[in-house]
Input
Amino acid sequence: MASENTADTRPVIDVHLVVRLLEAQFPQWAALPLELLDPAGSDHVIYRLGEELSVRLPRHAGAIGQARKESEWLPRLAPHLPLAIPDPVGVGEPDFGYPWPWAVSRWLDGEVATVEALASSYGTAVELAEFLTALQRFVPEDVPAGHPGADLAGPPLAERDRATRAAIAEVDGRFDIAAMTELWDAALGAPGWDRPPVWFHGDFHTGNLLTVDGRLSAVLDFGGLGIGDPACDLTIAFTLMSAGSRTAFREALGVDDATWTRGRGWALTTALNAYTSYAAVNPRVAAQTTRQITEALIG
Output
């Protein structure tokens, strides 16, 4: 759940830099072949390292906390979750002009989930609900309920109000801005989460799911991991699912009306942010975010 106003400082990242970083900090892996993963997403440059590892380097300042956060929390979360998640094996330090922490993790086989394959799958919808249920039930002993650390406190939906209304105005003529404004007002006006704070993934969308042989196999990218209101994770219902499978997902997860409305708001604001930032130069993002906006408006 990256910030919408992150400073866009992007260092040059190429194979020569990665080799130098590995040679200096993880020499045991420096001789392994490197293969650029493309496309890898907007937050990280990713290289496959040999057959069993990957290297992830943040592209911009908004992603610089992910390596250490995942290293701390994912090994503790993994035994409690029904799908595989990244397995960090090392956190690299800034060097050779590269300014931020970076990560080496175990490679996870699979294909990125697609709407075409899974949108109508009730089984997939229920599996995703079960994953979120397990995540929300995780209770680490050293994080007092209701008192997450600063890196685990998710931003409230209202923080995105100004940017979201500006984005709605920007896409006038391409989407129904009256319907978007109505949904956004409803999401901001919905009652807040009034139960004990729970864990959320924070960036739970189609691009962060892997499949093997057409079945869900792994969940990626826990940079937005936090504790609080889980409504942000309902975004997956609008990036991946159809109306029918979305109903099965909601029933399996037991989502009340207020949380569902806030979730639709999260789906709308994150889609608008990505659409206005990337759609003009990336047809894949344009198609994905157009679908997300459309499905969020349907509900």
About this structure: Confidence is low (pLDDT under 50) at residues 1-7.
